[in-house]
Amino acid sequence: MSDLPRLGLLYLDHVLQFFAPSNFKGWPNKIEIVTYHWGNDKERFINEVRRKKIDVLIGNVPATAYETFRDIARELPEVRFVPSLDTQFPNKSKENVTRLCEKYDIPIPPTHIFYDKTEAYRFLDQTTFPKIIKKSYGPSNYGGYFVHKVDTAAEAKALFDAKDYWPFYLQDFVPMAADIRVMLIGHRPVCAFWRRPADGGWLTNTSQGGNMDYADVPEAVLDLSVRVSKATKAEYFACDVAVGKDGSLSILECATAFAAFSYIRDWIGQYLVWLLSGGRFRKPWIPLYNWEELGKMDSRVLRRMRHIHFDQEPGLYASETGEMYQDFDEEQGYPLEMVAPRDGEEWPSEQWRHRPSKMDETSISEDDRLVSQAVSRTLP
To answer: Do residues 148 and 132 lie in contact, with contact meaning Cβ atoms separated by under 8 Å?
Structure first.
């Protein structure tokens, strides 16, 4: 179909690939691959995109390359980036997550950001504890290894003195019952699960001993996640929502880069096939709360499953007991939406880039780069 846009997948050296052409099952035309090589590769990359006549470039941009791809996107105004660089704004840093939530009145733990050490340490001498300290830049919460709970000003200062964390990013400690990861496609929740801390612990990451389950995710958590997804105008997205012991909800993290089994990436691919064809291909139907049933499967099996589809048959259904019931509306309040391309820039770097140039891709150490890229599809 010659009138369809030409798709390209964005790859980067040393980065785990979120998408493969097989995720876009049914797309009739060749899907191009364009790989960015670290270093001074901007001009060559731009020329390759133009030479291959790519209309839509699909892929997540790691934090260390974010500013580089801001420049690339400006040089390629005719190309739609999916997700857009504005949608990927919270991927870059915890600061950006905070700015996003502040702008759209989205609840977050009370957060304090300082760009000057003297001001940060003065705040530490006056504030109450405990506090949470996070490495702001990039995928800093990967596995919970760059998140720290401190109980005194002296402990916080010692941590900052020992770590190369800038800016000084602190949050009030929120006693949590758990947090909930919600994944969305076209602003529709497609997977959600609880992550609960181990007995006596506070980190919910499974790598830190946390436990996960899929049952009874509150509707209020889904509602909040949809709000954030719509605020970012995301084709696909994930949120970590803190559930306080008092029942309060707040956003911990959100990004387009997150760990997802292959079948989730297939669903995203099928959504993009529908979206980018203008609805000419089949609209995916992903039942709400499907995760409660899929989550019963052994994860060793589930992570290898591909192209999971669901039948959609309107009308009456018979239960195992013979009882007849009317099916709910197929989308149950969370419609799968066609996300439109953005116009202009919402988060221009000239206004929102507070980081010194030394932290950009051209000078970041190779070790830091490889760590950042290896987790580039993992929600911090």
So the answer is: yes
Measured distance CA(322)–CA(114) in Å, rounded: 63
Write down the mean pLDDT value for the chain: 87
Using CA atoms, how far residue 377 sits from 237, 261, 288, 301, 322, in Å, is 11, 11, 24, 21, 45
d(CA 252, CA 242): 6
- How far is CA 41 from each of CA 34, 48, 58, 113, 190, rounded to the nearest angstrom? 12, 11, 18, 33, 36
* 156, amino acid identity: A
Under the phi-then-psi rule, with left for phi > 0, alpha for psi from -120 to 50, and beta for the rest, what region is 371? alpha
Contacts of 164 (CB under 8 A, 6+ apart): none
332: left (phi over 0), alpha (psi -120 to 50) or beta: left
pLDDT at 164 over 70: yes
CB atoms near residue 160 (< 10 Å): 20
The 10 Å Cβ neighbour count of residue 149 is: 13
The pLDDT tens digits of the residues spanning 299-324 come to: 899 999 999 998 776 555 555 665 55
Query: pLDDT tens digits, residue range 103-144?
Result: 999 999 999 999 999 999 999 999 999 999 999 985 544 545
- What are the pLDDT digits (tens) for 33-77? 999 999 899 999 999 999 999 999 999 999 999 999 999 999 999
Measured between its terminal Cα atoms, the distance across the chain in Å is 39
